[in-house]
User: What shape does this take?
Amino acid sequence: MKRTVSVDEKYKLVCLCLSGRKNDNEKYRNFKEHTINRLFQFMNEEKSLKNEAEVVIQLQKIFFKLEMGVNFHFLYKKNMISVGGAFSSGKTSFINSFINDKNLKLPEGLRPTTAIPTYIINDTSVKITGSSKNGSIIDIPNEIFSNIDHEYISDLEYNIRDLINILVISIPMVSGFSNICLVDTPGYNSYLEGDNLYTSNLDNKLAIEELEKSNSIIWIIDITVGVITSNDISIINQIKDKKLYILLNKSELVPETSRDEIINQIKDNLENEGIIYEGISAYSSRQKREFKFVKKSLNQFLSEENVDFNLYDEIKSEFESIIKLYYNAIKADKIEQRERLLNVGAAIDEIFDKILELERPINAIKAKRCSEILDESSHKIKKQFSVIEYNNQLDELRNIEEEILNSLDEIFLEIEN
Assistant: This one.
C-alpha cells in the first residue's frame, strides 16, 4: 500500500530545514565577505589570464571543500571516496553493505534529481546533519530520515534538494576505515518510474559535479547488464585526476563463468579506452562478499585510501596554484607588451625617416615640428603599455595571496579548537 505524507509531516520537514543554525566561524565569514571579494575584484579587472572560466569553476570547488570543512569539522580530515554509476546500478546498496546499524540504512532507488549527496563516516553512534542552500546547518532526527524513501519524496510535491543540498551521516560501519568518507552521489542517465523511462542531462551534470568533489571514485556497474556502457565511459572520461576503482555489483546473480567473461570484457574495454584504474571487483552488496578481483581487491583499495587526509594543505595548495596562474599570465603579458613597445618605437622611427625622404632639402622648422608630433604620438602610445601598471598588479596579487593564506590559517585554527 502506498504511503502518503501528511500535511503535518511536510510542515515539520520545511520548518526543520528553515530553522538551521548559521555557521559560527567568524574567520570564515570574514574570509567570504572580504578576502574572496577582493580576489574576485582583481579577477574582474585583470585581463591577462585566458582560461579564467576554468579558474572560476576551480574556485567553486575549493569553496565547497572549505565550507564542508567549516560546517562539518569531523569531515575535514577524511579522505573522500565518491560512489558513482548509473541510476539503479546499486550505489546506495553498496554503501549500505558497510553500515552496521540495523535500524538505519540509506534510502535506495531515489530519482537522481531528488537524491541528496550524502557523506557517510564511521562513528560509534548515529548522527544525521544536513546543510541548506543558504549554508545553515540542520540536525535531522533519525525518525525523519528513516521515512525518506522514494514514495515519501514523490509525495512531498517539491524537490527536497531545494531545502537540503547535503547530508552528513555519522554511523557505525565496518571497522578498519576510520579515515574514509563514502559519498553517495546521484545516479546519472536513464531511470524508470512506473512504466516510463526518463533521461535528463541535468542528472549527468549533478552526477559529475558530485564525483569531482572527491579524491577517489568507486564506479558501480550492475553486473547483470554485462558491459561497461558507452555512457559509463563518457562520464568517467569527463572526471580528471581521480583514482578509479570499478565494482561489479549484484555478482551473486550471475554464474562464475559469466562473471569471468564480464570482468575480462570490462578490463579490455577500459584498457582500450586508455582509462587507468586501480582494480575491478565482482561484489555482492546483499551478501557483503567479493567473488573475484583484478589487480586489487576492494579491501586492498579501501585500505590504501584509509590514510590521514589534510584538507588545509590541499586547499592551500589549490589557492597557491591559482595565484601562480595569474602571476605567470601577468608576467607573460608584461614581456609581450614590452616587445610590442619596442616594435612601436621602431615603426615611429621608420615613419620619421620616410617623411624626411619626401622633400629634400626639408625645411628645418617643418622637420622639427614633425619630430615633435611623432614624439607626442609615441608618448601617448607608450602610456598604453605601462610597465608600472603591471608591477602594481603583481604587488596586489602578492597581497591577496598573503591575505588568503593568513585567513586559511585562522579558519583552520578555529576549526581545530
